[in-house]
Design goal:
Radius of gyration of chain A: 22 Å
Number of strands of chain A: 13
Oligomer: homotetramer
Structural class of chain A: alpha/beta
Distance between the termini of chain A: 62 Å
Strand order of the largest sheet of chain A: 3-2-1-6-7-12-13
Strand content of chain A: 15-25%
Number of domains of chain A: 2
Largest interface: A-B, 47 and 47 residues
CATH class of the largest domain in chain A: Alpha Beta
Chain lengths: ~350, ~350, ~350, ~350
């Protein structure tokens, strides 16, 4: 009898999820004669046993589609909202896994998913994960699929703002996603030629920002573009204990509203300090949407097929990390619970400073 | 001696301004041997006599550029901020016009610019205007350049939001520009397949919106996309006297912040009424940026060259309106002070309703 | 019992077909309680009775999709290749129409489709057509859906060629579609700032082209971009009887190969006459692909819903023409067999000349 | 006195050249107080001493521009066409280098440029190179800037062809650049989901291709998309001595015409063997044009600033290779004359086969 592989997508959605599902699924079916069973809406679908068979037809034509055909959720096996309560549903999930006689469960997700996957591994399930997130904050992998696409979208946005900024005397603030890290804002800011880039790894001093804007203004440059990571904080706030810490980890509405308020406050602050009008663009979920970039499709396909090879070899309990042109299995224990921040001596930080970008410190 | 044509761009910037400058300028120079003098930053540059000669070289390569190489401002000749005061500078402007011995002054702008242009016409100056704005609210013209580009950008944004919205159970609210009218939101909402479209011309009832969202939810549709014009108002607010009316007409920071707050409040209101998470995207100046669409470049070139023909014929005091495949001069008196709202019986309103879009009423 | 509407898409595919199917279908179902039956692959599917029910689910999510979910073909009812022979299958088609008790048959297509539709109308069937084609050559309508999208794609291509052309001393020839007319080449050439635009309506003299290139070269401009319509002909060839006339009307491989050879020959001819290297880009089916532009989606939706209104009113035997912001039924007799060429005094021709474009004559 | 750095761009142009010039130039000026002198049109400008000072103003606003502001050529110092002859102009070039008292000469180019740079190094000049090419065939570097952009363009083209291919029963052949290697065709083919990918590294058997197309056809798939590298050869031709070898290395018109003929012949061959219509798209210089992708801008900026650091440290005679997130100097001797082919056991080759792609063997 052919082996049955389970698969789910969890956490915030990310371009490339469908490409990865297709890469894993098609290769499992065609190259090894396995069968593939999708669970809907992340770990919740595994708990509720809501499934969809992923055959060649279901996997056809999804390479270029944004989102995930399986749906996703931020639910965690051990803290699942059920009937108004938060319950540990790991037992149920394990039971469903066993009832399906799964050979392995593939979990596509970001940092949170790695933690959940590790818990299931510790229950003895055969788990493999793929690193997806637009934030690029998963440890032990060169990169994650979704990041390049989001980078392209945010960069294109900054390009557009540039062309309109030239026409007026203004500060334009654009809020870029990235959760607790600055990869997306640094990348898009650098690629888009933002004058100021604010990232969580380097708390900023708003007075220095205002000075940088005014210096540009004095040298005849009519505008300044500020790319700010949603997680960026000022030096004053950086010292404070984060009373919203829990919000941060679940991407809730309350958190998003609060972050956006930060950005609006930054814009108003700069306006006050410089006397220049400011305008705000909140990219929001734009950065998660649309067809994945070519690079992300290739990465997702590459990791998806490598995952199938690992399943075939019986290598479980690992994340399939991107490594150079290829991939490498990394133990979940080495990934879970870690966040890949930007090192302050990263080449891109140096590049940004060398071309004259203000990083707020 | 060859005739000298003055030109300026005023109001909010709009894709296609450079294409129009090029069309007008190149044809004036090449076809009629005229010379072209640009004034910087709208009417302010005319007052301060800050000029740039627009020769073949300056006009080359700008067809595809967003923004305006002349710069723009929202200053009005008769209410110009000078040294902390608001002064009527029409005399100075007229003097500069006469000192340059201009054959004509071409003003590229939206509704506000038409009014300012009419005032100068009434002083006896030879004025021609071109209708530019992303809002499409200029009267007596089929359309305005900038609109098609902004429509494309806003539609692409809704497309992207669609692909991510599918993956989660959510309401996504996207704020679209448009000033006091709904052309941009209606167009982009229809083109993007938004489930709900809110425009100033049709005040909305938030309870009906919540009902529409819940109805979709009950029928198994996981998400709803709401395209809201920045000027849209609820039925309750529609009755109130608008104490911010003046803000509206100058596109100031205060106004923009207030409008965005409206959108955030709408999102939170829907969240509360439906129990579904909501996310907000504020496109902001994205909609003014980037290369103009092919259609806008053609329109701008067409109106720009038609403008040169009119100057050559000595036809002044008119706006060059887009009419079918061609153009038509319309007296400034018939344009100034009017706003092109969407008629409630417009074919697009009917189309939107027929394909099941909720318009909030 | 609810009315049943048949629908098919015929001729070369065009962006916006799915948007039109959705607009027509959703409004028929939701606004009037009709049912919709699709026939596959144009008139062939009607002959072979290959159908697909178009319900709300089938029509959902297709607004942004290129191509046509129904498939298409260039088959004509009265000249259908069947079992190696060309047969008149109009009787069979009429029979199928009657067996389904169709209230009306909606045919989405270009010039050829209008002719086929008229033949069926003359048999007494209730026919309505929508004008689709990237060529914009359908008579009696302001425009056709598909054209704006193809225009955008071809323009973007010319934009890209511009940026690379600047770097080398070269002639770049780009072949644009358009069948027997020059709308697409003229539009994209104008929007992309091509230096030379060649259209079927104006036969060209290659010596004049070479002169224009050399003149640019002498004035320090390193490159020339030539946008050539696939149907453009030189003055010498224009006089000759077209022995390939039949190819032209069916878009066959032989025809396409021949046209492309024309373009390659033009490039080599220019190379020889000017001594400058030339490069060729053949856009080919790129111009038919991808998501429809916002304007095309709106147009297709608008015509689709207007079509439903006409069906409801019992108005048959017409094409739903685009007219200003709205639409208008035009008798098929006034459309069939006519081609909308560019009039030589068209505003765009004048615009092109005024900004210095060489049209080859 | 401040150090003077010379810079030139050579070979075929590539997106990201301006971003690299900006990264190198801005950091040289701002971080180390150096001055920068550009030579026009590659080594030819160095020979003819045609220069442009690259100050802050010249380097501003070019980050997003395709092409190269310096111009480029394929001329080689030791084989320079001068007055109808091919001469060794290395002495003149060396003399100009010395007369300008250059601290170093930065050469941005592909494989050919590395060879030319090495020759100048052997004359004792301080040379540093950056690896640029859309072909990704430079040895000893992870990747080259230009490649990601071209990959994106070719992938988008395949996406578009997909949507139209669905509508007809057809073979669509798209010719992708790549010179003698298959990186671009493999990448774009994989990302675009091409059914068949033909690369120079794997000579193909046209009968196997036809079989693959017919197999798809029998299983109900209406179309096949073939992504063919311009350098791909059939097994029969692979054995033959390449009488055009010299063409290959200089990207001449004759070579390009010949390659395109190969593609047309392939299309006709498939048509004959399968009985299905085929259509051809030749992307040509589209793949070199337009704004560089975000990833290419970041890469180019990163390598450009790293180059400045190396100049500052007095490290010459090297290419600045991309290595992981950073960069690494590699001796020119290790790079020049080598071509980075795709290894037949490359992860992407395996991925392609695992998802069912036909590679023609």
């Amino acid at each position: 009898m052919s082996k049955l592989i389970g698969v789910l997508t969890a956490g915030g959605d990310s371009p490339g999820l469908n490409a990865a599902l297709r890469g894993m699924g098609k290769s499992a079916i065609d190259a090894f004669g396995m069968q593939v069973l999708g669970f809907r809406d992340g770990f919740r679908g595994l708990m509720e046993n809501r499934t969809i068979r992923l055959g060649s037809m279901e996997l056809s034509g999804i390479l270029t589609m944004g989102g995930t055909i399986l749906g996703t959720s931020r639910d965690k096996p051990h803290r699942m909202p059920v009937g108004g309560k938060i319950l540990d549903m790991t037992d149920v999930i394990e039971e469903n896994y066993r009832n399906h006689h799964l050979e392995a469960l593939v979990c596509l997700g970001g940092g949170g998913t790695q933690k959940n996957a590790l818990r299931l591994k510790e229950r003895g399930l055969n788990i493999i994960t793929l690193p997806k997130t637009i934030d690029n904050d998963v440890a032990m992998t060169d990169t994650t699929f979704g990041f390049d696409t989001a980078l392209g979208i945010a960069t294109e946005a900054i390009d557009r703002l540039h062309s309109t900024a030239h026409s007026h005397h203004r500060i334009i603030v654009v809020e870029v996603m990235g959760h607790r890290v600055g990869w997306l804002a640094l990348g898009a800011g650098l690629a888009g030629g933002a004058d100021i880039i604010l990232i969580p790894e380097i708390p900023y001093d708003i007075n220095l920002l205002a000075e940088a804007v005014l210096k540009r203004s004095r040298s005849g440059k009519r505008f300044s573009i500020v790319a700010v990571a949603e997680g960026a904080v000022s030096k004053q706030d950086a010292g404070k204990p984060d009373k919203h810490k829990d919000d941060q980890s679940d991407g809730s509405t309350k958190q998003k509203t609060r972050l956006t308020s930060n950005t609006m406050r930054l814009a108003r602050g700069l306006e006050k300090l410089t006397g220049l009008e400011s305008r705000v663009t909140i990219l929001g979920h734009l950065q998660r949407g649309g067809a994945p970039s070519a690079a992300d499709r290739i990465l997702a396909t590459r990791l998806g097929t490598a995952c199938t090879d690992l399943i075939n070899e019986g290598r479980f309990g690992v994340m399939v990390a991107a490594r150079g042109d290829g991939s490498e299995p990394v133990l979940l224990e080495e990934v879970a619970g870690k966040v890949k921040f930007i090192p302050v001596d990263h080449p891109l930080i140096r590049s940004a400073r060398m071309v004259g970008t203000c990083l707020g410190d």
